[in-house]
Each structure stands twice: as structure tokens, then as C-alpha cells.
């Protein structure tokens, strides 16, 4: 076999086939490396490797393998090999290893890149080298297939064309399997023919043992089939031809059945054994905190997954989310995963929520106490919208955070659940789902309250939210709110800018209890950087954040370092011994009131405060913002989530949260390299790739010329 290997390997570089293949491989990979890693700043080679494999190798491997047996048959030199004292297996393996060695040269060059990229950022080395291994095994399987096809014909052109068609079919047919209605047949086809699916699994960050088994078994199968073709030709003129043919046929069927069986059996291995999460952010697994939470749950929990279970085409099912849900079911003995087909059972969600969570949405139900929480699919992804290109990109994954929170929420007893009430009946702004979600994430359950219909504020009320009322409260309603505050209750208040000054005297009494009152006009800030320049109105405030209060201190060091208040009143403070007022949001010194611009000098106004009143026993706190739409999705989208942060911090300042409540931060979707890519650097990289390819081609030309002059 070693003699066959040396002969074949040497011949590739004597005829320039090897040099051309290596040069083309470097050029194609270099192009995608430039696009995804140098220009795209990706720390992972998966994009460059996948495209090189799917686009480049499909055409390059057949060219590399076309002469392995076809040319031998055409020149009749195969008869020398047939009569040589070498086994058929040795002949096939010698040629295979020679071609594999040529393919391994550019693959070895790729292995050098992760450490080099490591100089410019955090590199997922394990993931990168798993990608390279997958790429290499994929190429070996292609080589085995092409060698087999080459052994069937003596025409090299036919060998190349048929090989390309077969490889393309193997890569593209996987998508058609989703139309197969028979589950076992679909699994069988995916287990034996779906090349692209196997290639993508590891490139997406999951080291799946079935992919490795698939490519290795496929390589073995086609090498065996090639050996059977050669064996049949060696014994063509033998008197034992019939018996050899029968034996060969039986062995072929046995080996094919064995390969199919091995791959099908590999799919039955439990996910937790055959799959390893390679992603830096552990995207496909859950944290130890979530696992410990699952082990503590004693209630019977059902995770209703609104997706078709056998939807491998992902038309209704997010497979990443499915893996996360399976991890929860595995971690907790009382947690069960149930699939609900959203196509045939589209109204299922109405049993638990009024809002459709969408395909791949999740409804977490505590079957013991009946409490439930729906998680919309879109809420499990953090996205960023580029207003220049109008493209939306995923910046983070919040699947684990949302599900862990929902599990804690539904399993809380009524005594443990923190209750907040939002007033209605006065033209208030309704809290949108994202903001109620922030409350639920903080272990706070919200309900509407009509003060005219109750005798007192419920005893379990830990927070009252008054969100931009445009009509006044009645005296009896203010009495209930005052009694609640005097008993140590806390309030989160946003005020209206549409109500005429003095038109809400009862509501003004509630504010005055904390020593607060509102200006007649809205605040106009003319300092550049303190108003939203895009809209051109000084009433669209971008106020300064206080660094002396927990509510705004951390906001001043993140994001845009401000929040957005379109049209806000100023807050006037009346000093009271028992009241401490902290300004949270203030305008610049070049601010005026719209009602008094001609007569007043410019000054700074406060548009957000925390007011704490000391009582005989305890204290009562009100956080007040003077813009009724400050906490709406439409406004928050214009400020990259900073108003949502302000809302969450305000709630945490007013409500004592459980210290046992587990919070899982969103997982980053991608990290980036920090390569200063100037035009000169780009040209230098392109030049390096071209030089490497040209050097390889020149080396081949020199070898070829020297060989011909001998």
C-alpha cells in the first residue's frame, strides 16, 4: 500500500494537479476568510469553512479524484496494479490516502489561523477546530465518493460530471426530506443522505457525534464499494466469477445495511450524550443556576412548545430553543415538554393568554397551582435595527433568562408573589407588554385597579403605578391612595402633559403630600445634546442623569447615557422636613418653560425625582416622571432600550425583591475581532492570499518543466 501511496502522491505534483488544487483551495477559502473574518470581524471560521466546503469542494474534489481509476482504465495501466502483489484494499487505500494527503495540506494551513486571530480578540478555539475537523471529514467523504465513481468509468470527464452531480444532490436533497410524512422514513433519509445538515450542525456550534459517525461511515462505505468494483474486475476471467460475484453482492448489502444501521442508531443516542455545546456563550445549554432551580421544583410543570415536533425545516420550530427546552426537562424530574402544533391547534394559547406567542412561542404552566406565563418567541431574542440599512440583526439570546424567570414566576405561592396595581379610569396610558414583562421578570404580578370600586387598596399591594392620567381622580380615590401611602406604600407616577394646568386639583394634592408640584408649561432645552436633534424640537428632552441615586447611576455608564422624554413638565419642590427629594433627571441651564419664555431667565429644571417621606413607622416613596409616554415601546425604540432600563431600576427601587430570585442575563450572539482594517491592510491580506496561491502554482510549473527536460 505504501508503494501505491508514494506513486500517487508524487504524481499529483508532477502533473501540477496537486499544486492547482491547493492553490484553488487557498484562494477560495481566502476569499471567504476575507469576507467573514477580516471584514466581518467574526472570530469563528465556520462561515469561511462552510462556503468553501459547499461551493468549492463540490467542484474541486471531483477534479482531484477524476484520474484515480479512470485514467488507469483508459491507459490499461490498471492491469499492472491488478497483477501486483498488493491486496485490493491496499490499492484502494493507497490511492485514497494519497488524495487525502493532498487535501490535508490546505486544511493544515487553515489550522494556523485561530491562534493568529487570537491576537485580535477572544477566539472560541474548541469551536474553530471542531469546524476544521468537520470540514476535513466532509472532504474525505467526498473523496471516497469520487474515487468510487472514478472506478466505474474510464472517461475522466464523465467521472467529474457525475461526481459533481452526486455531491450536489447529497448536499441539496436534505431539504426535500421534510415533505416525507412517514417519521421513520424521514429519520432514515436524514441519517444516511443529509450531508448539508451534518455539515451545518457543528458549524452552528454543536459538536454532534452523529455528524462525525456519518462522515466516517460514509467514507468507509464508498471505499468498500470501490474495492468491490476492483475485486470484480480482477476476477472477471476467473472460473470462480459467479461465486465471487454472489459473495461480493452479499457483502455489499451487509455493509450498506450496517452503515445505515449505525447512523440510524446514532440518532437514538440521548442528546446530552452525543451533543456538546461549543459556543462561547453556551447557547445550547443552561447554566448551573437554572439546573439547580429545576431540581428544587416540586410542582408539576408543563412547557408547551408551540411548534411541530418533526419540523426539521424549522418552518414552525426553532431548533435552538427546542434544545434549551429539552435541557430544562432533563434537569428537572417534574418538568415536561409538550409540543403543540400551531397550525392545526392555532387557538391553544387562548387557554392561558390573550396574546398569541407566535410560532415557537412557549407557555409555562404550573399544573399544580394553575398559574401560567406565556413567552412570545420574539421576546427570546434581542435585536438591533440599523436605520441606515434597514436590517435587523440578532444581538443576544434570552431564551434561558425568559424560561428560568417563567419557571420561578409560576411556582411562587400567593404569599411569595409580589403584587403591583395599575390605576385605570382616568385616561391612563396602558403599560405595554414589554413593561409588564419587566415587572414579571422582577417577580412582580400586575393587575388593574379601579379605585372607585374598592373600599381600600388591597393589603398585598407593594406598588401602585399611576401612568399618565389625563383626567382627575375623585376625592375618595385620593383618600384611598393617601391612606395607602401613609401606611408605607410606594408609587410610580408619570404625569400628563395634555391636561390643562390646575385641571387636576385632586391629583395635585397627592403630589403635594410628597412636597411636589408641576410647572404650567413644558420644558424646552436649547442646549445641543440635551434634546433629540433628529426631531428638531427642544421639547424632546434628553436630560442629564443623576449619579447620586441608584435608579440612574448605572444608566450614566451604559448605552447612550441618557433617556428620552418627549414633552415633560418641570417639577417644583416644596421643602418639607419629613420629605427627602432626589433629582433623577434634569435639563441643562439653558432651559425655559413654554408658558413663560419671554419673561423668565433660563435655568435647569427637574423632570424626574425620587421623593421619600418619613412616617411614624417606616417611609413611603414616590418616583415621579413628568412625561406620560416615557414608558412606551415607541419611545424606547428611539433610545436603544434606555427608558426600559430606567423603568426596571425604578421598580427595583420601590419594591423589595426576593434575594432567591435567579436572574439569567441574555447571552451575546456574537463577539467580534478588533482588527483595524484600513484599505492598505485589506490589500495586504489579498496580496498575501494571491502570493501563496501563485507560489504554489510556480512551484508546480518548475517541477513540471524540470521533469520534461530530463
Distance between the termini: 28 Å
The total strand number stands at 22
Shape: elongated
The residue ranges in which pLDDT falls below 50 over 5 or more consecutive positions are none
DSSP helix count? 24
Described by strand count, sense and barrel closure, the largest sheet is: 8 strands, mixed
* Helix content range: 40-55%
Content of β-strand: 15-25%
Strand order of the largest sheet: 10-9-11-12-21-20-18-15
Rounded average pLDDT: 83
Question: Structural class of the secondary structure composition?
Answer: alpha+beta
Specify Rg, calculated over alpha carbons.
35 Å
Question: Could you explain the architecture of this structure?
Answer:
This protein has 710 residues and is α+β, with helices and mostly antiparallel strands. Strand 20 and strand 21 form a beta hairpin. 39% of the residues are buried. The model has no long low-confidence stretch (mean pLDDT 83).
Amino acid at each position: 500500500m505504501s508503494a501505491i501511496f508514494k506513486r500517487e502522491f508524487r504524481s499529483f505534483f508532477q502533473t501540477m494537479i496537486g499544486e492547482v488544487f491547493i492553490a484553488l483551495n487557498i484562494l477560495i477559502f481566502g476569499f471567504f476568510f476575507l469576507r467573514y473574518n477580516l471584514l466581518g470581524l467574526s472570530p469563528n471560521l465556520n462561515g469561511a469553512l462552510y462556503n468553501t466546503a459547499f461551493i468549492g469542494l463540490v467542484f474541486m474534489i471531483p477534479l482531484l479524484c477524476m484520474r484515480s481509476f479512470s485514467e488507469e482504465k483508459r491507459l490499461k495501466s490498471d492491469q499492472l496494479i491488478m497483477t501486483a502483489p498488493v491486496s485490493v484494499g491496499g490499492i484502494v487505500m493507497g490511492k485514497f490516502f494519497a488524495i487525502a494527503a493532498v487535501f490535508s495540506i490546505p486544511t493544515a494551513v487553515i489550522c494556523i489561523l485561530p491562534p493568529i486571530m487570537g491576537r485580535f480578540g477572544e477566539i472560541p478555539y474548541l469551536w474553530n477546530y471542531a469546524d476544521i475537523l468537520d470540514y476535513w471529514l466532509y472532504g474525505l467523504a467526498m473523496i471516497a465518493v469520487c474515487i468510487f465513481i472514478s472506478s466505474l468509468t474510464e472517461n475522466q470527464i464523465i467521472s467529474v460530471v457525475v461526481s459533481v452531480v452526486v455531491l450536489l444532490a447529497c448536499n441539496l436533497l436534505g431539504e426535500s426530506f421534510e415533505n416525507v410524512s412517514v417519521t421513520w422514513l424521514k429519520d432514515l433519509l436524514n441519517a444516511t443522505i443529509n450531508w448539508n445538515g451534518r455539515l451545518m450542525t457543528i458549524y452552528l456550534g454543536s459538536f454532534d457525534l452523529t455528524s462525525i459517525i456519518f462522515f466516517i461511515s460514509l467514507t468507509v462505505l464508498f471505499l468498500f464499494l470501490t474495492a468491490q468494483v476492483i475485486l470484480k474486475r480482477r476476477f472477471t476471467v476467473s472460473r470462480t466469477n459467479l461465486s465471487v460475484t454472489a459473495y461480493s453482492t452479499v457483502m455489499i448489502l451487509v455493509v450498506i445495511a450496517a452503515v445505515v444501521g449505525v447512523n440510524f442508531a446514532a440518532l437514538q443516542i440521548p442528546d446530552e450524550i452525543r451533543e456538546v455545546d461549543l459556543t462561547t456563550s453556551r447557547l445550547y445549554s443552561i447554566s448551573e443556576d437554572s439546573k439547580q432551580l429545576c431540581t428544587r421544583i416540586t410542582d408539576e410543570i408543563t412547557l408547551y412548545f408551540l411548534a411541530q415536533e418533526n419540523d426539521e425545516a424549522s418552518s414552525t420550530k426553532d431548533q435552538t430553543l427546542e434544545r434549551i427546552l429539552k435541557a430544562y426537562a432533563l434537569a428537572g424530574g417534574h418538568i415536561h415538554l409538550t409540543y403543540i402544533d400551531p397550525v392545526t391547534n392555532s387557538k391553544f394559547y387562548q387557554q392561558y393568554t390573550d396574546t398569541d406567542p407566535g410560532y415557537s412561542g412557549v407557555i409555562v404552566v404550573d399544573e399544580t397551582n394553575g398559574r401560567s406565563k406565556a413567552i412570545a418567541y420574539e421576546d427570546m431574542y434581542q435585536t438591533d435595527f440599523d436605520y441606515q440599512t434597514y436590517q435587523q440583526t440578532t444581538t443576544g439570546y434570552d431564551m434561558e433568562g425568559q424560561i428560568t424567570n417563567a419557571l420561578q414566576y409560576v411556582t411562587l405561592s400567593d404569599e411569595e408573589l409580589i403584587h403591583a396595581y395599575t390605576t385605570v379610569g382616568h385616561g391612563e396610558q396602558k403599560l405595554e407588554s414589554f413593561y409588564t414583562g419587566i415587572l414579571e421578570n422582577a417577580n412582580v404580578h400586575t393587575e388593574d385597579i379601579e379605585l372607585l370600586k374598592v373600599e381600600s387598596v388591597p393589603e398585598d399591594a407593594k406598588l401602585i403605578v399611576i401612568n399618565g392620567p389625563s383626567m382627575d381622580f375623585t376625592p375618595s380615590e385620593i383618600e384611598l391612595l393617601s391612606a395607602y401611602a401613609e401606611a408605607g406604600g410606594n408609587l410610580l407616577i408619570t404625569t400628563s402633559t395634555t391636561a390643562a394646568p390646575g385641571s387636576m386639583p385632586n391629583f395635585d394634592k397627592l403630589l403635594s403630600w410628597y412636597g411636589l408640584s408641576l410647572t404650567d408649561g413644558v420644558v424646552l432645552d436649547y442646549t445641543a445634546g440635551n434634546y433629540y436633534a433628529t426631531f428638531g424640537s427642544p421639547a424632546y428632552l434628553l436630560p442629564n442623569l443623576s449619579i447620586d441615586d441608584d435608579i440612574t447611576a448605572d444608566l450614566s455608564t451604559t448605552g447612550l447615557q441618557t433617556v428620552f422624554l418627549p414633552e415633560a413638565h418641570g417639577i417644583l419642590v416644596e421643602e418639607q422636613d419629613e420629605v427627602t427629594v432626589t433629582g433623577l433627571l434634569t435639563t441643562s441651564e439653558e432651559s425655559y418653560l413654554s408658558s413663560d419664555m419671554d419673561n423668565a431667565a433660563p435655568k435647569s429644571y427637574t423632570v424626574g425625582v425620587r421623593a421619600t417621606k418619613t412616617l411614624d413607622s417606616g417611609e413611603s416613596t414616590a418616583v415621579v416622571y413628568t412625561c406620560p409616554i416615557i414608558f412606551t415601546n415607541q419611545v424606547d425604540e428611539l433610545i436603544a432600550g434606555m427608558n426600559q432600563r430606567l423603568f426596571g431600576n425604578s421598580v427595583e427601587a420601590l419594591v423589595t425583591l426576593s434575594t432567591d430570585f435567579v436572574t439569567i442575563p441574555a447571552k451575546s450572539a456574537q463577539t467580534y475581532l478588533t482588527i483595524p482594517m484600513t484599505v492598505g491592510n485589506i490589500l495586504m491580506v489579498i496580496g498575501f492570499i494571491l502570493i501563496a496561491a501563485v507560489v504554489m502554482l510556480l512551484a508546480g510549473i518548475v517541477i513540471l518543466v524540470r521533469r520534461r527536460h530530463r
